[in-house]
Design goal:
By secondary structure, this protein is α+β, with helices and mostly antiparallel strands. 28% of the residues lie in helices and 10% in strands. The N and C termini lie far apart (99 Å). The relative contact order is 0.12.
Amino acid sequence: MPDTPPSVPDFTQWPSFPFEGDLRVKQLDEPVPFEPPRRGEADRECTACNAPDEAYIWVGERWRVRAMDRPTGLPMVLILESRSHLDLGDLPNLLAAELGVMTVRLERAVRSLDGVARVHVNRWGDGSAHLHLWFLARPYGRLQLRGTFLSLWDSILPPISEDRWRENLAMVAAWLAEFGGRPLAEPPRIQWQAPSSLSPTSPASAAEEPEEESVSVIEAADEIPESDAAADLSDASAGPSEPGPAPQAGPAPDNAPDNSPSSAASSAASSEEADEAEPENTPKDRPGAAPTPQS
């Protein structure tokens, strides 16, 4: 007799649940006798220990704060890490006390940003043995994003603009630096380069520019490195603009000058007749007067 599939839980009817339609519960796998080591355990390399300070937005003597590699759907997503390779239960009393202070301080910094209502603080720890806490900013007024599924919505919502993202990072780093440490995030720079053309960009040319896919909280938990192809596209987009297309041959406009010998001769003769008929002191606005040639 086949097993009866479990019923869908009630939270799928919550307004904050990001999916709708026909849903079914996935079959649960059998438990394994031994869990595989996390990053930083056994012979697995620790990503946090090998990361330089330049990869973070703020660094201190015992703590560091880093962000995603590009904007995501939420106003701000940050990770608080300890410098020492310790997990939550391994912290000595000094670091355990500082963790509480740093958690409150970072929560206040993120909540001070424009458009942020709440800051969710999460710790999973199934991917890495190095202590790291997540700080997720919920947008103000987005009541549907309240509660458990905020990290899922970060993967669904369109990413915020990069200028706003970099400005938020710089503000959080500056807030933390008021209490010590070193801020490494800088606000976006103003692009002073003049446009190569005053004509608006056509939709066809705008569609040719590739868009980088944002990495959300769920995807970043696997610490997927950025591909070389994405880096090449990023470098190419920062280069100078491409030269305009070469002019194509076609019929000359009606007012275009004619370079033929006969046209040049007739033009010279007309110019001499105009000089003899019009003295230099003749008023320009006299009725019937010939217009003065423009230089």
